[in-house]
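=== RUN LOG ===
request id: a7f3
mode: sequence -> structure
chains: 1
length: 549
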Amino acid sequence: MRRSHSEPDRNLRPARQSAGCQSSQSGRSIRPVGFLGFSPPWTTVVSSIRPRIEIGGTSVTVQPGSTLHGPENACRIMDTNDQSSAEVESVPVADLRIGTRLVSAVFDDRGILLLAEGSTITTSFLRKLASRGLTQVRIREEDLETVYALQPRGTARETLDERADVVCPWKTATTMRLDIEFATLSNLELGPQLTPFVEPSEPPRVAVYDDKEVERFLCDHRRSVCEVDNLFDRLSSRGAVDTDVLAGIADEALANLAADPDLFACLGITPVPTMYPARHGTHVSMLAIAIGARLGFDRETLRDLSVGCLLHDAGMLQVGNSAYTSSDILTEKEFREIVKHPIHTLEMIADSSEIPQRSKCVAYQMHERCNGTGYPRGRKAHQIHVLARVAAVADAFVGMTTPRPHRPGLLPYKALERIIHGVHDGLFDASATRGLLQCVSLFPVGSYIQLSDGRQAKVVRSNCIAYHRPIVEIWRPNRAQGTPELVDLAKDDSIEVLKPLGQCAPDLQQDAADAPPGTGRSSDARATPVRNAHAPVPLDAVAIEDSWS
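=== RESULT ===
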């Protein structure tokens, strides 16, 4: 069932403006700070608190300094700059992307207006902020995804290792039935594939992303995250699984994947660290089906893979949110609770006969590792379903590059390097890893790189088997003007990639590096160029072979 782009799901919670939902997990709302109740006609001048006024349930945003002429009815002023507001977030200046059009206004930490709503981020605006010594600004939460869209969030070169060899002893009737079924190896195979969803021979596109297409993808993505969040709420209350919603999300994702695979993958690997676990599952699902498409899977297989990934972290809601909101490293006891979440998920969806068995298998097994060090059962490669092995690679990459309360995210290149070495160590499936590289390139889409001719560039498209030579857009400080210059490195042997850079624009990286501690970045995770980066790891160096034909 393909959802119309113009018809929102009426079952969603009340809208957070353009974000389309409000998480019940947060329980936050905008704080009322005053009322206007003058006899008509009344007049008042709005201060710098950046309010919205609410009249009879209708909300209107008001600029600071505006003069309001009111009706007879009292009006409530809502402070959208209040620190407790669910709609305001602090953002490092280095994360603001030139050319991004924001729905909301931009303020400093004192509530002073810096940029009017509906404005576009420009180079001159960012330099003005730098000249004033500002390292953080405040924007409405609805604009977070717009700011971070197509922009990798990982900044660190090192992060904590995965815990291993923690097997969950908890067994249920549901898991025992599934374990018996999976003891037959034929039940873990992919099965005959029909027409591949994407033709492997299709040449890469050499074109910049279409702005309208980006906006449409973002709109679809926001709706999908909200629908998954709502679905998780119902599941945590032991409600039924709405399989029509899951099918709609999967079908819409496949349509967008077909429309622009690189844009789709780039959006999938640039998550905003909010609305966990619904957002995480949505991004993992996007990356997993992008990988699966590269591997020649058909539509039905990709759909089952998508549904399993969307559902896989629902069980985290049974573990307790402190497991993923605490800034402290998990204790051994807490981690042993975490490894139960695939079983919780399976129990939540066990009674839904409309969820494909392959999807349930993905949700149950995607945290397993090919060498038997994963969870919940410590299965080895031949005991793990093919789709779960693909999902494991997607989940690992999205998880490594997403900032968490207890650690920064990895630079995308470093995450890929780690996964490639993970193949050598027996953690990850070789074919799935090759699919990841062909999907996002060794220097993942959205990343910045240093070229051998002295120029810097942003990776905009992958080059499939030439994963180490992507299609790039040459960096221009004032890139809002002029035609972008694209270079297909697979067709230009005179240019090499010297090293990956940080996740923000090259002309802002030194500003980010100079930012003082306590400005929203870990001291070891600022967006600086990677010094003495390891040479790219060739895929054949880790003896990657096909896991299936």
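=== NOTES ===
The chain has a mean pLDDT of 74.
Residues 101 and 378 are 47 Å apart (CA to CA).
=== END ===
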